[in-house]
Amino acid sequence: MALSDALIFALDIREDSRPDSSILPFSFEGDSGGGGGTTPETETVSNCLLGTLTPTYSIDLCRIGKLRNFNVSQCYAMDYSVTVTIEQCQSSLSENLPRIANCHSSDSEATIFIGSCHFGQFADISTFKSCLSENSVPVVPLVNCAQDDAPVPVTFKVCDSSDIPPTIQLFNCYFDLGLSKVLYSCFNSDNVPTLPVPCDWYEIDLGDYEPPYEPPCGDPPPSDKLPLALSRPSTQGSDSDILPFPFVCHYTPEPTRRRTYMIYNNISAEIDAQPIDIYTAKINTSMDSFCWQFDVEIRHDDFAKLNLETRTDDPLMTITINGHQWIMLIEDYGERKAFNRDSYTLTGRSRTALLTGDYAKRKTQLINTALNASQLAQQQLSGLPFTLVYDSDADWFVPADTYTVSGTPIETIIDIAEAGGHYVASHPTDPILYIRKRWPREAWAINSNDADRQLSALTWLSLTGNRNISTRYNSVRLAGSGANAKGGYIYRQINAGDKTPEAGAISHVLYAGDTSNTPVAAFRNKGIQVLSDSGKHKIYSVQHIWADDTTNPENLPLSQLQEVLEIMDTGGSLGKGVVTGVSIDVSENNDATQITQTATVDVYLGD
User: Which CATH class name applies to 267-354?
Assistant: First the structure.
């Protein structure tokens, strides 16, 4: 038996004696060669694959198939054309070839079983000697071919020498009949520049509000304020084995109600470290005003000592009321004369008023750096003696070359805040700005959650309420502008998924992003604000006592913006709402100083 790498094929027939193409010069009898029974010279063929050669095409994108061998039952003769020179061989994994059972050519013996095949890195095959050759192009290596499981071929049952039908075009293959080119990618095509997508839309389902988990008994009280009744009168004796310790949730000691409460107020004011006597004072702020505002009535003699008419700097006034302090910028003043009472009224705002157009310069600048909205707002205070605290989790990415600053620093900061459903507030004493959410949670979820504080009917002095009725919207669309624009569709799951009526669309250039960042946080929080502002609301203005006294059962701290208050009346609760404004009033009542606070509370009346 001949070796598989030294088959006795006579491949050195002279060209002038080339036989008929139907009679191949292969001998299958003993060691005979291809002419006159002599043994031809053999050429060692190393590591070549056997296969049927078809005209080579440049294949740019093919799928790699997983082929399985099958038995060939019958074969038919084929007319082989002139073989071309093989310049490159592909590396493949060959399994043992099955024995060819029923293929005979004339009186040839059965084909020899090839038993040992191997795989490896094939070298270039040397050119067959004395063979006709044609100019062929180099085989292009396949790049990034996708894999496709090829079906198992069916067994050929009838083989004849009829014309072979055209081969089926390969799946997802690109044929190039020209000269082969080096492929840098799977396929080449002429593309026009991609047009920017005007806007990507994202649906945001607000869903039902799910409050965070809270312990059954709430947060534990501080160690110095445990609700243990240890102050009962000694006359109320009890058994020594029954300690007055409540082991129940939400225990509140019953306060001792008295007919009269004594409240001691402490008020002072100074300018340039000089004490000032105050007749009256009013300090207020709201979500619609980024800073604190004040007006103070002082004596005529104190005003003369300040030299406000001749000084060129910006005087600051420090006001302290019951331990709370404000540092205010004096901007204007007015004179008032009356019998036995000449006075001046000083007005002004907190120091953050220096960021307005009255003091700061306006500028126009394109932001060419990608920043978050919080960083964009903080950048407006760069180089200024102010800081900004972004007190919200609704922050989002703004691509470069998207936002243009136009106006004063505070105008830009307010514009950024409102785009995300926030408001801007000022610290009462320090040059600090805050950006916070207008609605700490959805308006329709406030009544189903605990309030931050209850306002007892025994403590408020007066109450007014105005009912505002408008269309309750269930959805709103937010859209950006420019090449980086994004869009959001925010809606409530209410009325069996009915998203109408829909609020008017809101557009802002800050609703932008890229392929990896979408302003979902801004869409959601702004959508909550728009939908929460719609519908039926009742705006309460509650004037009540201000008495910071933790030992008093009616402890009444100063109300804060964004705080959730529950207003109680003698007949029950009037509702829970968000504090949107706070005002402090200092006045005289029967020659005594009286201090009250007024909270503006926005109560959502439900769906």
Answer: mainly beta
